Amino acid sequence: MTPPAVGLSRLERVLDGLGRVVVAFSGGADSALLGYVANRTLGTEKVLCVTSSSASLAAGELADCRALAAEWGLRHLVVGTNELADAAYVRNDLDRCYHCKRELMDVLAGPARTEGATIALGVNVDDLSDYRPGQRAATERGAVFPLVEAELTKHDVRELSRHLGLRTWDKPAAACLASRVPHGTPVTLGVLSRVEAAESALRSLGFRVLRVRHYGEAARIELGLDELARALEARDAVVAAVRSAGYRHVTLDLEGFRSGNLSRTALENRAVPRHPGEQARAATGD
């Protein structure tokens, strides 16, 4: 574990070397810390935090990005991205995140040119061990990962955020809504809207760490392990909440919440074709 003071010093040094940055600001613990420290280190005029607004971003997350920017005095810009217009993204193979991040980088390129700045993403050291094709799309377009350069793990990010008094220090991970859709199932506006509605209904019941995995008419709920017992006690309310989003069948995953488990499962099983030609062969049984 990196002591917060040491981690902060490293991160400030990395940011000083960049001079001006456009921070991809999703409002999660990582990008929030990056935006806050960049603003504090370089000054507001040299830091622009940009949030991508799309169908894959829950409305509550966008609202929180705006709130954080106001609380911390960040220059903040909301831009629109349209991943759903990309057939490769909609197809939802194992490289879906690559196509999503490519769209984001293309949209951020304009503000970065205007600012004369480098695009910076809130990627931490632990993220490098997962299968995250979006990171490849970002590096291909010249983005940098200051938290990685500062050698900060996810735990370090949370501890440093707590040290700085940031309310995001214990914010649950909030990946894009498309991460709830198993690879091979097309990502559509209807699917994303249903997932968002189900998760919103569960949050209204007080659940905090959660995912609603989409399987057609069935929803598989993942919760923090400390919330499983309460979910069983409130079974009727949980079922009603998820059914209100349009699901007919509601299941509770007793293994609890696991970030990125759909991608890991697909990679382990190699059950999902990665290319159109492979999809055609799979469909014919070849």
The 3D shape can be described as globular
Percent helix among the residues? 40-55%
Q: Give me the number of helical elements.
A: 13
Characterize the quaternary organization of these chains.
Answer: single chain
Structural class: alpha/beta
How do the SSEs run, as a string of H and E? HEHEHEHHEHHHHEEHHEHH
DSSP E strands, number = 7
**End-to-end C-alpha gap:** 49 Å
Q: Which regions are unreliable across 5 or more consecutive residues at pLDDT < 50?
A: 271-286
Structure explained in plain terms:
This protein has 13 helices and 7 strands. The protein is α/β, with parallel strands linked by helices and 286 residues long. It has a 4-stranded parallel sheet with strand order 3-2-1-4, sandwiched between helices.
Keywords:
286 residues, alpha/beta, four-stranded parallel beta sheet, three-stranded mixed beta sheet, 13 helices, 7 strands, disordered C terminus
Helix-strand blueprint:
Layout: H1 4-18, E1 21-24, H2 29-42, E2 47-53, H3 59-72, E3 76-80, H4 87-91, H5 96-115, E4 118-120, H6 133-140, H7 146-149, H8 154-163, H9 189-204, E5 210-215, E6 218-223, H10 228-233, H11 235-243, E7 249-252, H12 261-269, H13 276-284
Helix pairs in contact: 1-2, 1-8, 5-6, 9-11
Short description:
The chain has helices at residues 4-18, 29-42, 59-72, 87-91, 96-115, 133-140, 146-149, 154-163, 189-204, 228-233, 235-243, 261-269, 276-284; strands at residues 21-24, 47-53, 76-80, 118-120, 210-215, 218-223, 249-252. The protein is of the alpha/beta class and 286 residues long. Strands 3-2-1-4 form a four-stranded parallel beta sheet, sandwiched between helices. The protein has a three-stranded mixed beta sheet with strand order 5-6-7, with helices on one face.
